[in-house]
Amino acid sequence: MSIAHLDAARQTGSAVEPCLGLQIREGRSLLRLAAPIMLIALVNMGMSVTDAAMVSVMFGAEALAAVAVGSDFYSIVFYLGAGILGGLAPFYTAATVRSDAAETARLLRIGWLMVALIAALAVPLVWFSPDWLPLLGLDATLLHQGQGYTRAMALTLVPMLGVMLYRTVLTAAEKPKVFLKVTVVMLPLNALGNYVFMNGFGPVPAFGPTGTGISTLLVASVSLAILIVIARRASIRAIATPVDMSVAWASVDWRGLATVIRVGLPIGITTVAEVGVFLAATIYAATQSAADVAAHTLTLRTAGVAYAIPAALLQASMVRMARAHSQGDSRAERAVFTSSLAISLAFGSLIVLLLAGGAGPLSGAFFDDSPAGVAAAGLAVGLLILLGVMEFIFTPGAAAAGLLRGRKDTRVPMIYALVGHWAVGAPLGVYLCEWHDLGVTGIWIGLSAGTLLTTVLTISRLFSLRPR
After folding, report:
1. DSSP string of 77-135, one letter each residue
2. Residues 247 and 212 reside in one and the same domain
3. Calpha distance 43→183 (Å, rounded)
4. Which of 46, 219, 231, 453 has a CA-to-CA distance to 445 between 20 and 30 Å?
5. In a domain? residue 261
6. For the chain, percent helix, then strand, then coil, each to nearest 5?
7. C-alpha torsion sign, points 100, 101, 105, 106
């Protein structure tokens, strides 16, 4: 080999090693950021499960159904608002990287005004929902039974949107552990509040199922108060307290507000599209047999737990890409790109293996030995394996969406999500269920197909914009 070839080989090796090291370091940073985000999602799910279990045990299935309607509608509205606030993340990350205090203060003023605007629209929408949802065909009696809970949740939107603003900026600043600690503390407080407000204690009257909504309002308010105190002690005055609205309204950068909303609104719509298709599937599954409904319920609850992983990778990928992109560092962008997709594929594979291996034992433990239970367990095994395949597809798609959001590319992925889940997945599920007699299995095949199309389109978009 000539000296020139030896020199070229050395240069190639020296270029590869730093690149590999950068990718490894970036992978570690992604995992450190994603881990607390995932735990936050699981703790929040624990609160939701606690609410449902306590209402069901204390007041029965009918009360649970009445509360569930209000909870589902609240969730849709909240996810939309939280997604819009998420549009702050790439901008805030960039300002943090530059240590630009003036810019972070400006973005936080925009964030608080967004909270105020979203709450002004969302609270009445949820508060009066028992009056107008019957026009869409929902059971008016059931809505009336859950009216107290629904109105408590409408008020909960105000502190929860404030909490989500803190979560967004803390994640963007790569400090989600602060938020995790506050969330963990609130888990037992939520259960205690449920018991006190549902059953009454001392001077506190018994509110029945409405009590869980009041407890959620209390927990959200306390969480916000704690975050404010933490921020004050850290001398972060800008996020410690909401700004003086009269001053902020006059001084706000309206162009900046519009820019953030243009990024955040598609994120909110995308989130609602993803959550909404599963809510629609639940409503549709209720028209099938009891075994279908039971198997679908177990699969959906398992999907909620599994979703914590891709959701965390999405947010971590978004923040790390926003950091690299704001610095104009193409090497760092490539490292984020490669490590994010590699980690997502690894976790997707792990989910497949866990669900494939655990489908039988989980179904057996969840259902009894009655004929209906055996039928549901048989269906659930297939659905759980199908869920594993769907999560394997969805996890890299979520990472790709996060990478695109880090570059403020949100509108085209929103269209992909709407097309994949609603134009393809939902109709295909109905078709397989009704015309091929596949029951709830057909619904989940449709959901998987919609997820596959959304992922393929999103990853194609990502590769077309891949940093060179």
Report:
1. HHHHHHHHHHTHHHHHHHHHHTT-HHHHHHHHHHHHHHHHHHHHHHHHHHHTHHHHGGG
2. yes
3. 7
4. 46
5. no
6. 90, 0, 10
7. negative
Asked whether residue 366 is assigned to any structural domain, the reply reads yes
**Position with higher pLDDT, 417 vs 55:** 417
Phi, psi for 368 (deg, rounded to 5)? -85, -175
Residues 273 and 80: beta-carbon distance below 8 Å: no
Q: How much is the pTM?
A: 0.85
DSSP state of 136: G
> Are the CB atoms for 109 and 256 separated by under 8 Å?
no
97's tokens? 């990287």
Comparing CA positions, the residue from 313, 369, 316 lying closest to residue 344 is: 313
H helices of 307-424, where? 308-326, 330-366, 371-406, 411-418
The residues facing 204 across adjacent strands are 201
Sequence-separated (6 or more) residues with CB below 8 Å from residue 373: 294, 367
Residue 15 maps to a domain: no
CB 108 within 8 A of CB 114: no
243 shares its domain with 303: no
Residue (of 65, 22, 41) closest to 332 by Cα position? 22
The position carrying tokens 């029945």 is 208
Which of 42, 79, 429, 396 shows the shortest CA–CA distance to 265?
79
Q: Are residues 214 and 67 in the same domain?
A: yes
Residues in the chain: 468
Neighbours of 172 (CB within 10 A): 27
What total number of domains does the chain contain?
2
Each residue's pLDDT tens digit, 76-92: 899 999 999 999 999 99
Q: Domain check: are 208 and 115 in the same one?
A: yes
Q: Residue 60: which residues within 8 A CB-CB, separation 6 or more? A: none
* 302 found inside a domain: yes
**Which residue, 252, 278, 304, sits at the end of a domain?**
252
Question: In b/e form, how buried is each residue of 41-62, taking b as 16+ CB within 10 angstroms?
Answer: bebeeebeebbbebbbebbeee
Coil, strand or helix at 206? coil
pLDDT digits (tens, 9 = 90+) for 320-356: 999 999 988 888 899 999 999 999 999 999 999 999 9
Whole domain around residue 161: which residue ranges?
39-252
Residue 318 corresponds to which tokens in the numbers above?
Answer: 């978004």
